[in-house]
Amino acid sequence: MGVRFLPGVLVRPTEDYPADLILGKATPATVTDIAYAFTSMVRFGTVATMPSCCPMEYSEDKGFRVIPMLMSDSTGVWNELETTDFLDDTVRLNTAIGEIEKSWPLALALQRQVGDKVQKIVVLGDADCLSNGEGSRNRREIAATNYLLMSGSFYWLSDGEVPVDTRREAAPDRKIELGKAGMRVTTWLFWWVLPGLLLITGIIVWIRRRGR
Fold this sequence. Notes:
5 helices, two-stranded antiparallel sheet
């Protein structure tokens, strides 16, 4: 398919989490070529958490059109070839042994024409990102939306059949426009008329209760 898994594990050293916790960011191509579900990931910068993600590389000489779905940061992420204990050991970039710091592909969408049908394949560098545990886990200062990766991938694979698209067109009457005269009337209404009516009603109720 033109996709190859490379040795090692991707790492992203931080003070708060194990170094092998990788954050996948959706590419703009996911919105235009994959599924609408990725729109909020691109717009709001949410991520897919991918622990112990395998480094990948790809080429497009096998007849597939390759669409990178998730990419890592370009700095601070590399393929760790030495350290395996990410809880107690310290990871360090060692370019001499082939560790490369760059933006790595984490999820790929492959597509090609086979006769009168279209073949679609999703390749992930990590399977934990689709698990129930990882999809529902909350981490401080990490806005993870793994469920969008799931729903967007299956929406693309099923040609838009599942999950069911429940989007609706925006309502045409979401704005209220007032001129200067209308603003004056509205101001008087909410500042004086309605409060005055409430005050008068309260006084009447108070007087009637005292009379009883």
